[in-house]
Amino acid sequence: MNAFLLDSIASRFNDSDFYNLHLPQYAYVVEKNATIILLAFAAFIILLALIFPFSSSSHPPDKPSDAVEALLTVLSPTYAAWPKDYAHLVAHNTSPRSRTLSISMDSLISKVYDGTLEVRNYADLPDLFSEHLVVYGWRISLALETSWNLEVLRWSIGSHFSWRTPSAEPRRALKRAHGTSKPKDESPLSFSLTPNTHLDLDYTPFSAFESSLLELRTTLAPGTSATLEFTAPAAHLTFLSTHFTLCAVPLLPRRHCITRTTPTRTRTTTPLLGSLHRVLELLTAGPAALALESVLNVSRKYADGLNAAALHLEEDRAARTAFVHQWGVAGWREQRLMMAWEAALFSAEHLTRWIVVVRK
Questions:
Q1: I need a labelling partner for 273 at 20 to 30 A (CA). Which of 34, 290, 324, 354 fits?
Q2: Mean pLDDT to the nearest integer, 212-231
Q3: What are the alphabetically sorted keywords of the record (predicted)?
């Protein structure tokens, strides 16, 4: 029985009619399946090519994003024209939807001081400080860390309480060019007044601001005049606001240009807390009032002077060499940046420089 069954199956496979009938059907099925597989594989390859485009190591690197180009327009690296990791040289955040780019102020200052970055054009600082700087459609601004507000608060408190002799700063503010001599009277808030007394109130501690002006009223000799020069904040500045902190930065003690053995004129909080109205009120109102001769806004001239001094420090070889010899390269970079920074605050109208002339 089994032998008969095997012989029957074998004879069927040896039958040519069986091959002629079924082989074409098998070949069609195989060919159809192969075509489907090839098309699917080709589609898969095309999909991969679209998602992960192939690149050769010999090809030039992709062009940086327009946000990085905008950043490069404001800040430039000092060691390469277009470093691969430029976007990571300074901390910043971008918002593509609003097209805004915020640069960390702490990172910016630190990178300039250590020579990693430099400000490409200091003329951009006024717009940067006013949040009006737009490059390639990106609005660029500074982001202030909380640590800066804390530093300004600490400095403000220290400036109020740390001065030793109230009369020290007003005496230093008297310009020797006008023939001022050291006062003999060592009583607090004593001025040495001459017919052409010139006082810079920026170096008078704010805690002694009003008492110093009241003493000037009573001490100034009849027939003589006094010229007071000072900085005042704009009306929109409020204590520890973003613009207030920006204005405080160049007034803070230097990191690299200050030594314990070198006496320096200390900047105070008076430029951020005083006002023209209060100065005029203290000098020209009430008994023994002084006569007001003139009031001049010299902000533009003062800013131009700061920019000229910064440019001189940068381009004059003798001045640059002498400064670097005394304070180091980091101190030179710091002084260059801070002079331009302060000038930009006047150009941005966050600060105003006044000259007031009074006569008795």
A1: 290
A2: 93
A3: Membrane, Transmembrane, Transmembrane helix
